[in-house]
Design a protein that fits this description.
By secondary structure, this protein is mostly helical. It has 2 domains: 116 residues, Winged helix-like DNA-binding domain superfamily/Winged helix DNA-binding domain (Arc Repressor Mutant, subunit A, Orthogonal Bundle), CATH 1.10.10; 32 residues. The protein contains 6 helices and 3 strands. The model has no long low-confidence stretch (mean pLDDT 91).
Length: 150
């Protein structure tokens, strides 16, 4: 196997292991991956209009409506009128939603800390620079292919 193929395989394997970890954590809490993504967006980006959530998730507005319905029923999100656009609704985390998604994110961060914490500071810096460069290159490639980098 060539060096590049080995590298790409390792990168996929790391991604898949983290994805499997999160999939199990999410499923055990009866939340779907798209619901998890919406909760993370709301946590990291703040309150959002339905249309903006659809853009973030790359799904239709009706699909977002369905996700919000389920998250509202679970007590994790709420809709409210937009303060300046009476046609729009704003989706926000409830206090229960904030506690839920923060706890789930902390479990993932703990795994990352356990993984990276065993590396030397210089190795951590190499990994940080690698991911920073990878994100820049990925955003540029997505832009070249006409896709949103978010």
């Amino acid at each position: 196997m060539t060096s590049q193929k080995e590298f790409l395989k390792l990168l996929r394997q790391v991604h898949l292991r983290f994805a499997k970890f999160y999939s199990k954590k999410i499923a055990s809490r009866r939340v779907t991956p798209p619901q998890y993504m919406m909760l993370m967006i709301l946590l990291e980006e703040g309150d959002q209009k339905m249309h903006d959530l659809a853009d973030f998730l790359q799904v239709s507005t009706p699909a977002v409506t369905n996700l919000v319905d389920k998250l509202e029923a679970a007590g994790y999100a709420k809709r409210s009128p937009h303060p300046t656009d009476r046609r729009a609704l704003v989706i926000a985390l409830t206090p229960a939603g904030t506690r839920f998604i923060t706890a789930l994110r902390e479990e993932g961060l703990t795994l990352l800390k356990d993984t990276i914490g065993t590396m030397s500071a210089s190795d951590q810096e190499v990994v940080r620079r690698f991911y920073q460069d990878l994100m820049t290159r990925l955003d540029a490639a997505l832009e070249r292919h006409g896709r949103d980098a978010r």
